[in-house]
Amino acid sequence: MKITNAKVIVCSPGRNFVTLKIYTDQGVYGLGDATLNGMEKAVVSYLEDYCIPSLIGKDPRNTEDIWQYFYRGVYWRRGAVSMTAVSAIDMALWDIKGKMLNTPLYNLLGGKSREKVMVYCHANGKDLSETMEKVGSEINKGFKAVRVQSGVPGIEHTYGVSKDSKFYEPAHKGLPHEESWETSKYLNFVPTLFKKVRELYGDNIHLLHDAHHRCSPIEASRLAQELEPYHLFWLEDPVSGELQEGLRLIRQHSTTPIAIGEVFNSIYDYTTLITEQLIDYIRMPLVHGGGITHLLKVAAMASVYQINTGFHGATDLSPVNLAAAIHFNTAVNNFGIQEYMPHQEIVNEVFKTNYRFDDGFLTIDDSPGIGVDIDEKAALKFPYSMARLPVNRKTDGTMFNW
Ligand code: GCO
Ligand code: MG
Fold it and tell me: Which of 394, 341, 386, 350 is nearest to 44 (CA)?
């Protein structure tokens, strides 16, 4: 069996998505998500210039060898752009494998460990009272787990709060726009936010929060400690992850569970965090973390240390990634939770999906492979539209983490 061709499809039904389609001499093709928010074209170029020419002629069944070819075989390895390309190739090859064997992807990953996967949704509002309303409406939709983000008094821009009440989309058209930030105000406010949610909605709902890399290790320790009475499911990205040792301080001070790594792209970003048990959930998604082949290894390593998965699943990851993630989450023993922000309705004009949300859980059907298809004619109606993630400055102008 041979790979005969591969092409990259870029479309923008409401937002940009990059999809890799790999063709074989058996008439079967596979799809992989290659979307990296705001850097879409860099991934397209790496796939088209570097990867696709070397893919042609290879046997698509050799997922391990092809993964190693584009990871170990590449001198300038790792990094978000190249690992997103590797992920897309890997996902498309597993899709082909499932289709050739006429079986859904989860069967190739160990079969079903569960029938359905618990997801968490987003509730956010410009202030405390709007956020409380949103939490209530998400619980009414059936969600068992809610990520709560709110505008903070005195801060002009808070991460995680939508401009439009329907969809949260952090990328803005054109060049990066600048936001401003003050950690002290944020730290003073967040415990009040969670106190209020627990008062209004009780203890039976899982609560999550994303600090989006904005605290120093000691600030994050204070936050995690002050949130303890509200029993969060997790506190996400409390610090920027480059300094793995930074997580030690948080652990020394608090029992709030920690999730990290949506911006990671290899197992080497996690070694200290996992082996020292400094975290509780791995966030690195299939689309940015080397695909199924690599995440199977990361999840296996994490399982030894009783750390679970909690994959990134914002709307800037395509339906192909989400479906693949549901297969993965259905199969591995150490599944924790899956982030789920439903895509805009218009996305369904391009992507034909095979998953279903019901009462707080997602399920996947038995279509072979990943089970998502792309309507290329429909994709042509939505051409690429340049958009970038914001940059962030402290109120005195100092460049900071977004
Ligand atoms: C999350 C994330 C997202 C990212 C976004 C960047 O937890 O869902 O932090 O909101 O910021 O995916 O493109
Ligand atoms: Mg996040």
Answer: 386
How far is ligand 2, taken at its centre, from the CA of residue 103, in Å? Answer: 32
Per-residue tokens: 56:
């042609």
Neighbours of 354 (CB within 10 A): 19
For residues 22-44, give the mean pLDDT. 98
Q: What are the backbone angles phi and psi of residue 367, rounded to the nearest 5°?
A: -60, 145
The CA distance from 190 to 401, in Å, is 18
Task: Sort 358 into a burial class: Cβ within 10 Å, 0-12 / 13-18 / 19+.
Answer: exposed
Residue appearing with tokens 């303890």: 228
Instruction: Please say whether the beta carbons of 187 and 219 come within 8 A.
Output: yes
Catalytic residue positions, numbered? 159, 212
Residue 244 gets which letter from DSSP? T
Contact by Cβ (8 Å): 131, 125:
yes
138 lines ligand 1 (CB under 6 A): no
In this model, does residue 169 exceed pLDDT 90?
Answer: no
Residue 187 has pLDDT above 90, yes or no: yes
Question: Are the beta carbons of 74 and 82 closer than 8 angstroms?
Answer: yes
**pLDDT value at 178 more than 90:** yes
Q: What are phi and psi of 341, to 5 degrees?
A: -115, 110
Could you give the domains of the chain?
Answer: 3-104 (3.30.390.10), 108-369 (3.20.20.120)
Residue 63 has pLDDT above 90, yes or no: yes
Distance CA(65)–CA(72), nearest Å, equals 10
The label of the residue with tokens 């509730």 reads 123
- Ligand 1: does its nearest atom lie under 6 Å from the Cβ of 147? no
Average pLDDT, stretch 231-243? 96
CA dist., res. 234 & res. 358, Å (int): 23
Calpha distance 303→323 (Å, rounded): 22
Rounded distance from Cα 314 to ligand 1 centre (Å): 6
Mean pLDDT of the chain: 97
